[in-house]
Q: What sequence folds into this?
């Protein structure tokens, strides 16, 4: 049983969910709502779908999306 808990804790820390904060959660929800409006309701799908998809992808934790900016600036 202890090995299972250690494995579960390892998955929790290695997956990135441990560093997920409230701002990321809110922006993922906003992105999913925009994606629903674009695909489900048909409100400006050519504009909203890429914005919503980028909003969802940019807010996943530990993906390294923000690390490329420092290489481009420096």
A:
């Amino acid at each position: 049983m202890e090995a299972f808990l250690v494995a579960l804790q390892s998955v929790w820390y290695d997956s990135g969910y441990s560093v997920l904060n409230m701002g990321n959660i809110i922006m993922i929800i906003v992105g999913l709502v925009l994606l629903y409006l674009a695909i489900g309701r048909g409100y400006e799908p050519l504009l909203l779908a890429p914005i919503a998809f980028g909003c969802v992808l940019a807010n996943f934790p530990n993906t390294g999306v923000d690390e490329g900016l420092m290489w481009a600036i420096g």
About this structure: The first helix runs from residue 2 to 15. The mean pLDDT is 85. The helical segments are 2-15, 22-41, 45-58, 68-73.
